[in-house]
Specification:
With 105 residues, this protein is mainly α. The protein has three helices and no strands. Helix 2 runs antiparallel to helix 3. The termini are far apart.
């Protein structure tokens, strides 16, 4: 990925301009962040759609952030910043979602 001026953003390449491979922790965090964004979109859409997507995506976010945490990630790009906090938030969302699906629907 280069900018308009042809520069590679910081953290994407070494001093010689060679793209560095992602560590396992970075790979899991990148995928987990994607599911965090999907879950957020699902929460917004919850008003007009079935909340099954929220349960699936929230569970995936918990699992993927757990893997990223296991591999050493201690901060993330998600708005809550800390994997444990994100996992706790999504666990509460999934619990509320499943409670609604099973008992209140």
């Amino acid at each position: 990925m280069t900018t308009v001026a042809g520069h590679v953003p910081a953290g994407m390449a070494d001093a010689g301009g060679v793209r560095l491979p992602l560590t396992p922790a970075q790979k899991y965090e990148k995928t987990a962040f994607t599911f965090c964004k999907l879950g957020t979109a699902g929460l917004i859409a919850w008003i007009v759609t079935p909340p099954i997507m929220v349960a699936v995506v929230g569970t995936a976010a918990i699992v993927l952030y757990g893997r990223a945490l296991y591999h050493g990630v201690d901060r993330t790009r998600c708005i809550l910043r800390y994997p444990r906090l994100i996992m706790g938030f999504w666990a509460a969302v999934v619990a509320a979602d499943l409670t609604w699906l099973v008992f209140l629907r």
